[in-house]
Design brief:
Helix content is about 40%, strand content about 5%. The protein has about 270 residues and is mostly helical. The longest helix has 20 residues, at about 1-20.
Amino acid sequence: LALALAIGAAVYLYDRYARRAAPVARQAPEQQAAAPPPAPATPVIKHPIEDVPLAPAPGPELPPREQSDSALREALESSAPKELSAYLVSEELVRRFVATVDNLPRQTLPMKVRAARATPERFATSGPDDQRVIAPENTRRYEPFARLVETVDARALIAIYLRFYPLLQQEYRALGFPDKHFNDRVVEAIDDLLSAPEPQGPIALVQPKVMYRFADPALESLSAGRKIMIRIGPENARRMKAKLREIRATLAGKRPAGESAPPAEKPAGGARGG
């Protein structure tokens, strides 16, 4: 700190001295040189991966990201419920995971980049064609996955994420973000999912072409991730958000702006005297 202050004082005093000793002669306006363009700002890393208070999962040296599918799947199956791998695509896991995370806060999430398989059964609707709504039974399609997410050890999952982070960062740069930090995008995607509203009552739909859309323009304008959270139903969304908060607390260490704290659970058996 003393060295930094000394250098700063020397520069400041030298600058004052130079201006007094050798004042710059004024030029006519047409002869003044144009000011140099400002230097590009260095991207600010909001959530450095080095600050995550958790050790990476142990394992052999990482393979190239194009050949990492088997290593990543093996790491997941050894630390997460085996059923989780059934929901994942079979190849290009690193590329698809990075692309999925990057697209969740955007307007659309193309099927060709998704890291998860399509949910079994068809999207369930009810009501006449001009009054179509999401059917109550539609949420049952997502219950197995939401309950599985509840059982995942967040710290074990984050340890795998930290181990494979160099490959994820490489892929994020290859995706077109050479100066950005993938962990920042992960936190942004989590914050976007946590901000998803929880509409009450039937959710009206329209079908202008093949795919259904929300009839409410405010809902339809939401990001792809927030629309997914609405489609899975409020109870499944609450399960998912609870795990996302747990993961975010480790990756970023603070509650996202504008999100209220979840309601405190009452202790079993009532309050005890002390």
